[in-house]
Amino acid sequence: MGARRLGREIALQLLYSRDYAAGEASALMEMVFDEAEPGTAAGRAFSDELVRGVLENREAIDAQIAEKSKNWTISRMARVDLNILRLAVYELLYRDDIPKNVTINEAIEVAKKFGTEESPAFINGILDEVASALPDKEPLAD
């Protein structure tokens, strides 16, 4: 598994844990990393960036999700799906180094592993709506 996929999966577990356990982000992060499969330093660093980015921008991220969710309120969404959406919307809005299609595909793959049978289609639908309202990202120069 690539470092970024591992980072996304660990970030999801941490955000999910925060929904149910009051605790310091760094303490929860250490617990999740201790229980996760061994990963690279790059995966850990990427996970840390994602979690901090989502937490710092959660209000704006949730507003995007709520705006693009037809017939669903955030409070009705499964916590796993919501946190996958939060991670992906963070990437779409704030990470210029990750192409939109990569973000969406990665979110769908994480949803297949951690969500329900309906999760990938649900997440794809909302992320397509968010992404379509954003300009294309410029490819990074070598």
From TrEMBL:
<keyword id="KW-0804">Transcription</keyword>
<protein>
    <recommendedName>
        <fullName>Transcription antitermination protein NusB</fullName>
    </recommendedName>
</protein>
<feature type="domain" description="NusB/RsmB/TIM44">
    <location>
        <begin position="8"/>
        <end position="131"/>
    </location>
</feature>
<dbReference type="InterPro" id="IPR006027">
    <property type="entry name" value="NusB_RsmB_TIM44"/>
</dbReference>
<keyword id="KW-0889">Transcription antitermination</keyword>
<comment type="function">
    <text>Involved in transcription antitermination. Required for transcription of ribosomal RNA (rRNA) genes. Binds specifically to the boxA antiterminator sequence of the ribosomal RNA (rrn) operons.</text>
</comment>
<comment type="similarity">
    <text>Belongs to the NusB family.</text>
</comment>
<dbReference type="Pfam" id="PF01029">
    <property type="entry name" value="NusB"/>
</dbReference>
<keyword id="KW-0805">Transcription regulation</keyword>
<dbReference type="InterPro" id="IPR011605">
    <property type="entry name" value="NusB_fam"/>
</dbReference>
<keyword id="KW-0694">RNA-binding</keyword>
<dbReference type="InterPro" id="IPR035926">
    <property type="entry name" value="NusB-like_sf"/>
</dbReference>
